Write a sequence for this structure.
C-alpha cells in the first residue's frame, strides 16, 4: 500500500509542478503529521474512542509511521495549490470537506476490515476522527509553509485568473 501512495506522490508532484523546496516542505509536513497521527491513534486507543491494534515492535511502528508520513505528503502539495489559487478561504473549505469526508471513510474501512480498526459507539469517536483530520491537514500545511515559505502568486496562478476572466466574459 505504501508503494501506491508513493506513486500517488510522484503524480501529484508532476501535476502541481512543485519546486524541490516545496516538495521538501511537504515531506517535512508529512513527517510532522506522522508523529501527530501516531499520537492521535494512541490517544484514541487510550480514551477508548477507537481500537487500532498496533504491534509494539520497532519494525512495525517504523513501517506504520513511514506509511502514514508518505500517505499524507501529497495532500500538502494540493493544499499549497489551493492556498495559492484561492487563499485562506480555499484552504478552509478544503479542511472542512476533509473533516466531513474523513470519518465516513474511516468507518467504511473499519466495517470492511474490522481487524484494522474498530470504533466505539456514539458521536464522540466521529468528532474525534473529524478533529484528527483537521489537525492532519492544518498541521502539515503549516509545517510545509514554514519550510517552503508562503504561496506566491506566480505566472501560473495569474494565467489561471486570466483564463477564468476570459471564460466569464
Amino acid at each position: 500500500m505504501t508503494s501506491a501512495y508513493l506513486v500517488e506522490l510522484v503524480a501529484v508532484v508532476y501535476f502541481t509542478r512543485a519546486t524541490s523546496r516545496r516538495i521538501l516542505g511537504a515531506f517535512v509536513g508529512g513527517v510532522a503529521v506522522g508523529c501527530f497521527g501516531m499520537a492521535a491513534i494512541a490517544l484514541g486507543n487510550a480514551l477508548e474512542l477507537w481500537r487500532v491494534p498496533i504491534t509494539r515492535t520497532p519494525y512495525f511502528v517504523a513501517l506504520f509511521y513511514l506509511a502514514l508520513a508518505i500517505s499524507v505528503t501529497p495532500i500538502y502539495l494540493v493544499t499549497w495549490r489551493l492556498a495559492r489559487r484561492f487563499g485562506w478561504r480555499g484552504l478552509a473549505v478544503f479542511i472542512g470537506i476533509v473533516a466531513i469526508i474523513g470519518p465516513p471513510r474511516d468507518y467504511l474501512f473499519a466495517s470492511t476490515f474490522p481487524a484494522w480498526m474498530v470504533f466505539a459507539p456514539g458521536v464522540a469517536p466521529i468528532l474525534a476522527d473529524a478533529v484528527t483530520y483537521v489537525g492532519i491537514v492544518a498541521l502539515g500545511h503549516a509545517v510545509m509553509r514554514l519550510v517552503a515559505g508562503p504561496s506566491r502568486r506566480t505566472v501560473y496562478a495569474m494565467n489561471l485568473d486570466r483564463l477564468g476572466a476570459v471564460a466569464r466574459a
Summary: Strands lie at 50-51, 118-119. The chain has a mean pLDDT of 88. The chain is about 80% helix and 0% strand. The radius of gyration is 18 Å.
